[in-house]
Amino acid sequence: MTERSLQTRLVHGGKQPAYEGGQAVNPPIVRASTVCFDSVAEQQGFRARRETDRLFTYGARGTPTNFALEDVVSELEGAYRTRLFPTGLAAVGMALLAYLKPGDHVLMADGVYEPVRHLAHSFLAPYNIGCTFFAADGSDVADKFQANTRMVYAECPGSLLYEMCDVPELARQAHAHGALLACDNTWGSGVHYRPLALGADVSIMAATKYLSGHSDVMMGCVATTQAAWAPLNERCDAFGMTVSPDDAYLVLRGTRTLAARLQMHEQHGLEVAHWLMARSEVASVFHPALPHHPGHALWQRDATGSNGLLSFELHPRYDKAAAIRLIDALKLFGIGASWGGYESLVTLCNVKAARSVAKWEGRGEIIRLHIGLESPEDLMDDLRQAMAAMV
């Protein structure tokens, strides 16, 4: 055979580089859209199995890098299988799409991440999927089931105020009505909280947060029991849902230090929380690991730890302008709405807009902190000087 031209050799060379040696600690990044096979029979055989088996057949269905992260999330969650999504909110949206159809009804906790509330109004309602909000602690859910309720959607602890709900009881009631229980588990991250082990069918996380841990990638994931898997898997394939293998690699790398980072976040967060409780400027501190927290007993029963998130209520003598002065005066806290990275963050909360069941009248301004990996003493010094700016 004559020697092939340089153009041809450039296209076909280097696809399977030979090397001797060991194995990389982390799986390599596999970037691919097209996947080739040795024969038509092999291609058709893989395609015939890909609705049930996880196979490398086309980039839109994931690459080995994506599959490696899916396996880690499934391990964290105690799940049958996991799918990945471009953002946490995309993961929520696909979970709703997978299990609900026009004419169905979903019960949604009052403490959900605020964009999920927007999704209920902007997407579910126009498509004739009913949505009723129940108290963030689940105390009134029994009275709100309808004949067409197909899902109970909870976030435990709830966003902003960290209300705990009784997930095993929610699961019991949902299943008794023929409904699934889906839980946002971003707070627990599979390390400190495992909804599937408590009876939930679907667990959703924003991998953007603690799984990544470095504030440099967006991603969401949905993990399910075996019984709940098929509708999610089918809907994801139908919509071509996947993520970049480069992003999957970043999150996978972040999971290697997840447990160690969470220990530091928890330690630092509790130090700051106790310091805030002693301040005259502060009316209350919201953190489920604190004994006075309304959901503390449930946290003790169902969780194995906490993290760096907490919120505090300013004394009512301080108005919104004072709260803004405090935030603007902080030097070590970035003003940002996200959390879960190594850095400390602060944001002003609007609980009235984020709740429809619970009323937030006559209460002080709420400030949410994410306590990062900086020295707690430095963070407390920063908060002290910033509180002086409120006067």
Question: Keywords, please?
Answer:
five-stranded mixed β-sheet; globular; single chain; 36% helix; 12 strands; 391 residues; alpha/beta; seven-stranded mixed β-sheet
What does this 3D model show about the protein?
It is built from 13 helices and 12 strands. The chain is α/β, with parallel strands linked by helices and 391 residues long. The strands form 2 sheets. The chain has a 7-stranded mixed sheet with strand order 1-7-6-5-4-2-3, sandwiched between helices. A 5-stranded mixed sheet has the order 8-9-12-11-10, with helices on one face. α3 (64-77) packs parallel to α8, α4 crosses α7 and α11 crosses α13. The protein starts with 5 loop residues before the first helix and ends with a helix. The relative contact order is 0.12.
| Tally of contiguous helical segments | 13
Which strand order do you get reading across the main beta sheet?
A: 1-7-6-5-4-2-3
Q: Which percent band covers the strand fraction?
A: 15-25%
Share of residues in helices:
25-40%
Structural shape: globular
**Tally of extended strands?**
12
Tell me briefly what this model is:
This protein has 391 residues and is an alpha/beta fold.
Provide the fold topology:
Layout: H1 6-12, H2 40-49, H3 64-77, E1 81-85, H4 88-99, E2 105-109, H5 114-124, E3 130-134, E4 149-155, H6 167-176, E5 180-184, E6 202-206, E7 220-224, H7 226-238, H8 245-255, H9 258-277, E8 282-286, H10 296-302, E9 309-314, H11 320-329, E10 334-335, E11 345-349, H12 351-354, E12 366-370, H13 376-388
Parallel strand pairs: 2-3, 2-4, 4-5, 5-6, 10-11
Antiparallel strand pairs: 1-7, 6-7, 8-9, 9-12, 11-12
